[in-house]
What does this fold into?
Amino acid sequence: MRRVTIVPTGTANTASVVAALTRLGAEVGMATPRDVDSSAGVVLPGVGSFGAAMGRIDSLGLATALGERIEAGRPTLAVCVGMQVLGRGSEESPGSAGLNLLEATVGRFPHGVTVPQMGWNRVEPGPDSRFVEAGWAYFANSYRIERAPEGWVGSRTDHGGEFLSALEKGDVLACQFHPELSGQWGARLLDRWLRCVEMAA
Amino acid sequence: MTLASRVIPCLDIRDGRVVKGVRFQGLRDAGDPVERAALYEHQGADEIVLLDVSATPEGRGHALETVRAVRSVLSIPLSVGGGVRSADDAGRLLEAGADKVGINTAAVSRPALIGELAERFGTQCTVLAVDAAAGTTGWEVVVESGRKRTGLDVVEWCRKAVAVGAGEILLTSWDRDGTRSGYDLGLISAVSAMVTVPVIASGGADRAGHLVEAIEAGASAALIASILHDRDTTVGILKRALAEAGIVIRP
It folds into this structure.
């Protein structure tokens, strides 16, 4: 079974994540704190600001349960701002603390490049990537993590300098790009992650 | 910079069908939106734009159904515009499966709407659509399918919109729309030079050379409609021509 629970971090973009997972045979539901602990697979989507996403996670009471499953390396997919909130904090929302699961802070792209980075960019997987393969992914972001925290395998992309386009650890996959919008390449990536969900079910 | 230049098919939608006219008039049927969107993704489209050109509330209801149906088959970004008057309208489109929402006339009437969308959904969701008519010294923003002039200078309007939260500009030359006479390159370079967000060139594409010119003038993406709907070319053929001209594309 490919049963997946989505953390409702806001309106934007959830429909695309649901559609992409459904096409790959997943049964998709919306998360309560109990589901985050019990589900074989959890997706943390995120569009909007770092502070708004953290506000939603806190008001739903999901921070602890998310932290526990990610620390344990259970199948969890974090997308875009969903990846960023795993860090300590972001230049975007200086007053908001992140989930603090990554030794990393999130910074804005430098001057001189198009911001938001909106479009397709090349992803180079790390030497030990299990999920990510080389290819083109769709990005829509103004902020990013630059340095890979210890214990995580990073994939890299260049936009005014290198940044981390994905991080992997155990069955946790965090993507700065949108796999649900990255065509067949993204669908294959989601399918590889869903196989881990199946194994964990 | 390795960000690929995008080729974006645009589907004008009326009452659940794809239509296309010249300068927004004389609309003719151009097929089923779900079939068209899937075909263009298969050909290598980097994104799909849906513009709801319905004139009635019934038509607007159809548009939400069309967005849901297209989303269910599409694995690339979907940007939707047409008739968006409020942040709630935008929210309904996003819930139905849009990834970005374009605002045009309503933003001209009430510029605060741009900031409201950016605040609620993020700048990357907030697209300013501008219809530009060439004048003697520059370009003027026109609304209501080009019937109404606004007195706003296009370049200045784009600069202000980006300052309050627009994350992308869909820049349509009203004079060139559907004419297949090439993009308005002066317009593209004037706006691109003024803003840091991506500019999508729209209006007038007939052949690959036109797309190359638009990108060289500063556009991040080129919108195409008539040449695809009339089956004169494919996205794949256009992208190969861009690559041959030295432009970075997603192969």
